[in-house]
Amino acid sequence: MEVKDKIRAFIVKNMSVWEDDIVLADTDNIFEKGFVNSLFAMQLLNFAEQEFNITIENSEIDIANFSSVSNMEQLVTRKLLLLHAR
């Protein structure tokens, strides 16, 4: 499973909206759309660090980095590239 798919699956599993017709686009702001609440950002942080074996620095803890599937994928991919470059 790719990074984006893992992130999407985690978000969908934890969404606070349970309507069958809701589609989560990669660029949807999950907080603005009400799919999750702001406390979920910490769960996303923990998920990313554990699932992908990365460390997200304090300077990277910005709601924008966790607001969409695309933004999270970019953050995780960047961290993985840095990790493998060492």
TrEMBL record:
Residues forming the Carrier domain are 1-80
Question: Which chain regions cross the lipid bilayer?
Answer: none
Instruction: Tell me the superkingdom of the source.
Output: Bacteria
Protein name, as recorded: Acyl carrier protein
Q: Which organism is it from?
A: Chitinophaga eiseniae
